[in-house]
Design brief:
By secondary structure, the chain is α+β, with helices and mostly antiparallel strands. It has four helices and 26 strands. Strand 24 and strand 25 form a beta hairpin.
């Protein structure tokens, strides 16, 4: 993820397009008299960061060289940027691609995605979840509701905070290549549990590739969902309807509340995302408007761990 850092220690994780200037509407606000209201922009384009001077009065500098008004230049890690005559320099300490994140519009504090899933207001008290679908679109989950979300959209958590959502840009060809390699719908899940079900281990397979999910605390809810999907399949329920369970029934079976369940689902998704599954949020699907959910994988194996 791209990071801009000032000499004074101030740091900014770059969204896909970052507007820089004195105006409070900018993503990077520099309150200096020689900085224009809309001074410059940084944008991720064709796999690199591009700096554009927006016709500033006092200039944009890269490594102490002033850009011509309206000029564009590609940047690499270590580039030193200065906006105006007296503003302190900024360094592009990381030139990686932008990632999914949200900025609290009141405080400026940020939250980054973990394993491709963004939890707001934070992972420990998650209420809203944002993730990418297999098709490439972006989805906001709020309880049992799910809807499409767009870049820079404002969303509100239940504590009254307003967040600006920054979605990363991607080359569609690269996305399709990634999806072909590691897609939730093509995974095979193997559950193994002890007789008392106190111990549950889970391994995902993508072809011959083995993905070990280490955090066993999140495996039992997935095991319950897997059993429902298998039972429906054996009863002759079609693939579109197999496996769905109302959230109230699931939380009752698990003896946990909605918040605990949502956080468990988030952590399981995030862990799968860290292992390289692009659409990891599809591990658990939600049926909008019904408070129903199910395991998003059809290929499931269950095994009992024999006592030693």
């Amino acid at each position: 993820m791209a990071i801009l850092r000032a000499d004074a220690g101030r740091e900014l994780a770059l969204p896909a397009r970052c507007l820089i200037g004195r105006s409070r509407a900018c993503d990077l606000v520099i309150a200096e008299a020689t900085v224009s209201s809309r001074h410059a922009s940084l944008e991720w384009k064709d796999g690199a960061w591009e700096l554009l001077d927006l016709g500033s009065r006092n200039g944009t500098f890269v490594d102490d060289v002033r850009l011509q008004s309206g000029a564009r230049v590609l940047l690499g890690a270590g580039a030193r940027l200065r906006f105006g005559r007296s503003a302190a320099p900024w360094v592009l300490v990381d030139a990686g691609p932008p990632e999914l994140m949200a900025i609290d519009v009141q405080s400026g504090a940020g939250q980054r995605a973990e394993g491709g899933v963004l939890a707001l207001p934070d992972p420990a008290a998650a209420e809203l979840f944002i993730h990418q679908e297999a098709s490439g679109g972006w989805i906001l989950e709020d309880g049992d509701e799910a809807r499409v979300i767009v870049d820079r959209e404002l969303v509100h958590d239940r504590g009254g905070r307003t967040w600006r959502i920054h979605l990363p840009t991607a080359d569609p060809r690269t996305l399709q290549e990634s999806l072909a390699a590691l897609l939730v719908g093509r995974l095979r899940l193997r559950f193994a549990h002890s007789l008392d079900e106190e111990y549950v281990e889970l391994v995902a397979f993508a072809g011959e590739r083995r993905l070990d999910l280490q955090a066993r605390a999140h495996h039992y809810p997935l095991l319950v969902l897997a059993r429902r999907r298998l039972a429906d399949h054996e009863a002759g329920v079609g693939p579109e309807d197999a496996g769905w369970i109302r959230q109230e029934e699931l939380t009752r079976m698990l003896r946990m509340d909605d918040n605990h369940l949502n956080i468990s689902i988030y952590r399981a998704r995030a862990q799968l995302g860290k292992l390289g599954v692009v659409d990891a949020a599809g591990l658990v699907e939600r049926r909008p408007g019904t408070r129903q959910l199910r395991l998003g994988v059809e290929a499931i194996e269950l095994a009992l761990i024999e006592p030693s």
